[in-house]
From TrEMBL:
<keyword id="KW-0808">Transferase</keyword>
<protein>
    <submittedName>
        <fullName>Glycosyltransferase family 4 protein</fullName>
    </submittedName>
</protein>
<dbReference type="InterPro" id="IPR028098">
    <property type="entry name" value="Glyco_trans_4-like_N"/>
</dbReference>
<dbReference type="Pfam" id="PF13439">
    <property type="entry name" value="Glyco_transf_4"/>
</dbReference>
<feature type="domain" description="Glycosyl transferase family 1">
    <location>
        <begin position="191"/>
        <end position="349"/>
    </location>
</feature>
<dbReference type="InterPro" id="IPR001296">
    <property type="entry name" value="Glyco_trans_1"/>
</dbReference>
<keyword id="KW-0328">Glycosyltransferase</keyword>
<dbReference type="Pfam" id="PF00534">
    <property type="entry name" value="Glycos_transf_1"/>
</dbReference>
<feature type="domain" description="Glycosyltransferase subfamily 4-like N-terminal">
    <location>
        <begin position="14"/>
        <end position="183"/>
    </location>
</feature>
Amino acid sequence: MKLALVTHNVIRGDGQGRVNYQLARHALARGHEVLLLADQVEPDLLERGARWLRIHPRVQKPHLLKVAEFTQRTSALVRRVRDEVDILHANGYVLDEPHHLNTSHFVHAAWLHSSVRASEVTGRLQSTYQWLYTAANARWEQRAYRQARLVAAVSEPVRADLLATGLPPEHVVTVPNGVDLEEFRPGREPRATWGLPEDRPLALFVGGIRTGRKNLDTVLAALREVPGLHLAVVGDVRGSPFPALADRLGVADRVSFLGFRDDVARLLRASDLFVFPSRYETFALVVLEALASGVPVVTARSVGAASLVTPECGVVLPNPEDAAALSRAMRSLVEDAPLRERMGLRAREVAREHGWAQMAEAYFRLYERLADSSIR
C-alpha cells in the first residue's frame, strides 16, 4: 500500500504530529510506502524509507495566512501525485482536494460557539482576530470534511461536534489517540530531582497555564480543602496568573510550579494522582499517558479522553467548575493509599488497550476499507 499523510508536522513533540508520526512509523514497519506532505518531519522516518515533500509556508504570521498557504500548496502537490498513492489521509483543513480519510483532532465550528473560547481572549484586536481565525477554519474544515470519504474523530465529543455540523453519522467514525506504553509505564522516581516532597501524596497537573482553559484556578481552589496534598504544575509560567493566585489562596507552600518540562513521563512515575479538569479538551493525550503510567486520574466530562477513565481507575467530574466535588475526589485518593494502588493497576490495564499499535491497527483497517474507493 502507498500511503500519503498530509499534515503540518510529523514530529514527536506535537500532539497531532505525534499521531501521524506513529502512523507513518507503523506503516513503514509493515512494509508500506509512505509519502509525507508536511512542514516538519522526524529524521528517523526518512531513514526508515519515508518520502517527504516539504511544504514550508513563506508566510508564518498571521497563522491564518500560514494555514491558507499550506493548504493551497498541498492541494497543488496532491493533484500531481494522486495517481501514485492508494490512500490519501489528511488532518483537518490541510487539503482542498478529494481524499480518502480525514482525522479531526479539533472542531472549530464547536469552538466558535464555546463560552470557554470567549473567555480565552482579552482586548478587542485579539478577540476580533481569534474570532476571524476560528470562523474561517470552521468554514474551511467543513469543506475539507465533505471532500473526505470518511472522517475519523479522535474522541466521542469530537464525533458529537462533527455530527452537530451536519455530517451524516455513517460518514464519521471514532479512533482514539494512542500512547507509548514503554515511555509511559508504572514505576517510582525520586522526587528530589524536582525538589518535590517525599513525605506526602503528590498530585500532578500538566497543561498551558497562561490562560484559564485548563482550569488550574479550580484545582488551586480545591487544594485548600485537601491539606495533606502537594501539587506539582507543569506549564510555562511566563505571563501566568496562577502563581499569584496560589499565593492569594494560601496554598503557595504546597504548589510547585516546574515550568515547561520534557520529562513528564518521569514526573508521572513520581506522582500519586493526576489532576486535569480542563474546561475544553477534544482529547488530552496526557490523560492517557497518566493511565499508562499507572496513575489514578481526576478529570472532567469536558475532556475528550475522560471517556477512557472508568470508575475503577479514576474520577470524572460532571462539572469542571465544581471545586467542592474536585476537592472530595482528590481527598478520597489522598486518604486511601490502597485505593490509589488498585486504581493505578486498573489504569494501566485500560491504557494497554490504547497503545500506538492498537491505534495504528484501527487506521489500517480503515485504509483497507477505503483503498478501492474513488476520490476523483
